[in-house]
TrEMBL record:
InterPro entries: ADH-like_C (IPR013149), GroES-like_sf (IPR011032), NAD(P)-bd_dom_sf (IPR036291), Zn_alcohol_dh (IPR050129). One of its GO terms (molecular function) is oxidoreductase activity. Gene3D superfamilies: Medium-chain alcohol dehydrogenases, catalytic domain, NAD(P)-binding Rossmann-like Domain. It comes from Massiliimalia timonensis. Keywords: Oxidoreductase. Pfam families: ADH_zinc_N (PF00107). This is Zinc-binding dehydrogenase. The lineage of its organism: Bacteria, Bacillati, Bacillota, Clostridia, Eubacteriales. The keyword Oxidoreductase applies. Residues 81-206 form the Alcohol dehydrogenase-like C-terminal domain. Signal peptide: none annotated.
């Protein structure tokens, strides 16, 4: 057990090996795991909803750091599957308005279905102007779900606001004037994986609080997976349900 695990921070474990990232097994018919990595779900919880437990648990780890209050404004940068889940969670938390910036047409549409108040295509619209019109001071919270929009988040968030860096893009290198963070008194939060947040995530799934079924745009077998990944890269899919025994 490392020092982080002793501090009850298993997501920061010095020996962690993320499955499907540093260890094969993300797309396999069978996967062997330690029982300490498993959590029981209700027998009547559909597999199509239970599959959201892991990303939702990761989101809960970040959301509990934000402490979003009803009526506070949120800007979500990037509406991939987890970004869309975040939109649903922010609306369920009472955030208003929830603004989404996304280049994909299909994902912008699902963002509206997921409860977003305003959806922006940053390639053809001025995100800065739309945010200013609808928040006056700027968003209370800006969530970078892409891993490469930190600079944009710093410029858009209001003075005294919060930024949550969720997305991971190891190749992104953003040049930022540190003085902007200092002068605006911005709080910058990082979040990584889940940390004692699976029980809360499962409770949310079992309560049917979020309309997660709207995010599943495609279903496929393992043999069709390469084709589905291509659709994801092209922004033509959102959440893909892979059936390993189909």
């Amino acid at each position: 057990m490392c020092n982080y695990c002793r501090r009850n921070l298993p997501n920061l474990c010095e020996h962690i090996i993320p499955l499907g990232i540093e260890e094969d097994g993300g797309f396999a018919e069978y996967v062997r795991l330690s029982e300490c990595c498993t959590y029981r779900v209700a027998d009547d919880l559909p597999a199509e909803i239970a599959m959201f437990a892991e990303p939702l648990a990761c989101m809960m780890n970040g959301v509990k750091k934000l402490c979003v209050q009803p009526g506070e404004s949120v800007l979500v940068l990037g509406a991939g599957p987890i970004g869309l889940m975040m939109v649903q969670l922010m609306k369920a938390s009472g955030a208003s308005p929830v603004i989404v910036s996304e280049t994909s047409t299909i994902r912008r549409g699902i963002a509206l279905e997921s409860g977003a108040d305003i959806v922006v295509d940053p390639q053809n619209e001025s995100l800065k102007e739309i945010v200013a019109e609808n928040t006056q001071l700027g968003p209370d919270h800006v969530l970078d779900m892409t891993g490469g929009l930190f600079g944009q988040a710093v410029e858009l968030v209001r003075k005294g606001g919060q930024i949550l860096l969720f997305g991971v893009n190891a190749s992104a290198a953003t040049e930022i004037a540190q003085s902007r963070i200092t002068q605006k008194e911005i709080t910058v939060l990082g979040t990584w994986l889940a940390n004692a947040s699976f029980p809360a995530a499962i409770s949310i799934l079992e309560s049917n609080l979020l309309p997660l079924e709207r995010l599943v745009t495609h279903r496929c077998s393992l043999e069709e997976l390469e084709e589905m990944i291509l659709l994801l890269r092209q922004g033509k899919a959102v959440k893909i349900l892979v059936d390993p025994i189909k």
